[in-house]
Amino acid sequence: MKTADTEVDFNSYFSPDLVFLDVPWATRADVFTELEKALVAKGVVTAGYANDLIEREVKYPTGLKVPGLNVAIPHADPVHLVNPFIAFIRPLHPVPFGVMASTADDTLEASIIIVLGLSKDSLQLRALQAVIGLITKEGSAQTLQGSGDVTSILDALREEFSKPS
Q1: Domain 11-161: which CATH class?
Q2: Taking burial as the number of CB atoms within 10 A of a residue's CB, which of 3, 53, 134, 137 is the most buried?
Q3: What is the residue extent of each domain of the chain?
């Protein structure tokens, strides 16, 4: 049985100004701090969001290894969330992240970071399924890693997130 939470329209969570391509953010702290600055300026989160991401990432790493692509999917409790969002970050150079459901020392170099700013825990599974569907879909890795076109990246994200759960 579907609930209203699983039928959410994620399209409103995406925005061209939440796509960050070839940014020089070299560490997780850089990624989270610079993202927070952009999100606070946009009115999407309040100060403290970066610290929440950092703390959660230490406890529950979000890096995923898939053939040809390493991805991180950080998220935090919605205490600093003003409006839900999904941000796409492609750093200039891969950023170290801990591997999801692995030992504390197991890391990967994430070339794609998709930050989930969701207001309800019940949406996390649906969003994670969409991200996994996207990154394992043939051709998606090339689009996400190589496209300089924000619209192409947003189209790929929207297509996967609009699929029924």
Answers
A1: alpha beta
A2: 53
A3: 11-161
